[in-house]
């Protein structure tokens, strides 16, 4: 145990962010560089080293949190990194992007503020990179088996790294021009600078993983032909079909899916574009959807110089504290969250629904009509007399995703069976109905968190390894049927 009295003598303290007026002028990460390390030993000491650490259950990766908290407290960064990497291929991603269900399950959180697990995690991995503790781990021998991984998001990368280290020859196919999936083009630079992805890709290349960009399976390469070329295939193409809003005026110019808007801003940061073709500069921006993707749109609009930013959410505003009856510990509670993007300004409106969009004479959106809604007898009903109009020159739809892409031919060409929710079906080994074809991440689970994606990639890799060799020593932290802790 780090410090038996740590949780009694130290209050929770998190990473400091840069001043709003400074950070909205650039696209760098919002946190003050170096602000964590001076406080992280005390924060790690708050870990109670519980007899039954529920943080293990809150995290689908099964991260060994009390162990690396202890090492961080003692300043043994090398051992802390070893424990961290034992369960997580990419802790610098999760330490920046995960909403931390582990903290919601922290035993200390029953009657105090939980341990800053996420901050300790990112401190360990950043220190590991600085110290040179993150090195390539090429396999001792090759199996002679080949694997194609379709998609280079966190699930695909995790599966690829595990299978490469097991000795298989792995090629990752990505339809975009750079590796990373939504990590690359869906996550803004101010949440995670892309240098973190780049150095992981170089590590994987040094281990032997091959990467093929600008190749879309189903369009550029027939899926059935790809299956014949490789001994096994892992589909990790994500759930990229955005949920639409079929209301009058949807066809107006200036209304875009979030995943049409956000990648262009990232393209500017990559140096591919001087100015984003879709920009919020000088415009009244409306973001429909109250989740993390919506917050990403809000922060991007601020940096592009929007005249105003309004975020709409159809659900009521969540409470600021856990409801012990409806969201008991150790489940992940839905709480009112103020992200760094929300700190930067804009208005958040809850319990409203869009009725229609209004356009100008040139077919551009100029206003959004909404109405207040409420739940009655379990149904969402409009409240008469609450209609109003807000200006809208740019509208982004950030209402989530409905499943994997079925338009590019991948599903049809492989002959894959889908489940009732439109996800690719799989068995206990993450295998689809097509022999030798496996699925991991959102393509099989549906829209989920980054920790679930990495856990899926690691688990699917074990299924592939068993298929290719008859046995596997690779870890499998979850089963396809596993779900987050819930009431």
UniProtKB/TrEMBL annotation:
Domain (4Fe-4S ferredoxin-type) ranges: 38-69
Record has Transcription regulation as a keyword: no
Record bears the keyword Hydrolase: no
Gene3D superfamilies to which the protein is assigned, alphabetical: Alpha-helical ferredoxin, FAD/NAD(P)-binding domain
Keyword field: Amino-acid biosynthesis, Glutamate biosynthesis, Oxidoreductase
Pathway: Amino-acid biosynthesis
Name recorded for this polypeptide: Glutamate synthase subunit beta
Organism from which the protein derives: Streptomyces endophytica
């Amino acid at each position: 145990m780090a410090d038996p009295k740590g949780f009694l003598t130290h209050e929770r303290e998190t990473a400091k962010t840069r001043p709003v007026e400074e950070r909205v002028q650039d696209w760098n990460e919002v946190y003050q560089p170096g602000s964590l390390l001076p406080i992280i030993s005390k924060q790690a000491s708050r870990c109670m080293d519980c007899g039954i650490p529920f943080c293990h259950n809150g995290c689908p990766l099964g991260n060994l949190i009390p162990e690396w908290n202890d090492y961080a407290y003692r300043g043994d960064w090398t051992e802390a990194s070893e424990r961290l990497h034992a369960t997580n291929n990419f802790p610098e991603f999760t330490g920046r992007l995960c909403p931390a269900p582990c903290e919601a399950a922290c035993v200390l959180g029953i009657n105090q503020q939980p341990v800053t697990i996420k901050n300790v995690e990112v401190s360990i991995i950043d220190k590991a990179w600085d110290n040179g503790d993150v090195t390539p781990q090429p396999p001792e021998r090759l199996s002679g088996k080949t694997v194609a991984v379709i998609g280079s998001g966190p699930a695909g990368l995790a599966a690829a790294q595990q299978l490469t280290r097991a000795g298989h020859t792995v090629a990752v196919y990505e339809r975009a021009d750079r590796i990373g999936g939504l990590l690359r083009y869906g996550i803004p630079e101010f949440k995670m600078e892309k240098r973190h992805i780049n150095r992981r890709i170089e590590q994987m290349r040094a281990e032997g993983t091959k990467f093929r960009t600008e190749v879309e399976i189903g369009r550029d390469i027939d899926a059935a032909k790809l299956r014949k070329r490789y001994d096994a295939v892992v589909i990790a193409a994500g759930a990229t079909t955005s949920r639409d809003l079929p209301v009058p005026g949807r066809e107006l110019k200036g209304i875009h899916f979030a995943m049409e808007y956000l990648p262009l801003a990232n393209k500017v940061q990559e140096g591919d574009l001087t100015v984003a073709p879709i920009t919020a500069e000088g415009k009244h921006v409306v973001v429909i959807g109250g989740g993390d993707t919506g917050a990403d749109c809000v922060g991007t609009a601020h940096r592009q110089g929007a005249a105003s930013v309004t975020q709409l959410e159809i659900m009521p505003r969540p409470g600021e504290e856990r409801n012990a009856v409806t969201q008991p510990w150790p489940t992940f509670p839905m709480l009112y969250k103020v992200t760094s993007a929300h700190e930067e300004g804009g208005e958040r409106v809850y319990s409203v629904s869009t009725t229609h969009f209004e356009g100008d004479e040139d077919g551009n959106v100029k206003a959004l009509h909404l109405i207040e809604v409420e739940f009655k007898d379990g149904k969402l009903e409009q409240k008469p007399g609450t209609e109003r109009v807000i200006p809208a020159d740019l509208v982004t739809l950030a209402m989530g995703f409905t499943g994997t892409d079925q338009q590019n031919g991948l599903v049809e060409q492989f002959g894959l069976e889908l489940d009732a929710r439109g996800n690719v079906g799989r068995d206990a080994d993450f295998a689809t109905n097509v022999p030798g074809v496996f699925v991991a991440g959102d393509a099989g689970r549906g829209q989920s968190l980054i920790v679930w994606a990495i856990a899926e990639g690691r688990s699917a890799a074990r299924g592939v390894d068993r298929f290719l060799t008859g046995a596997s020593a690779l870890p499998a932290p979850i089963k396809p049927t596993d779900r987050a802790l819930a009431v």
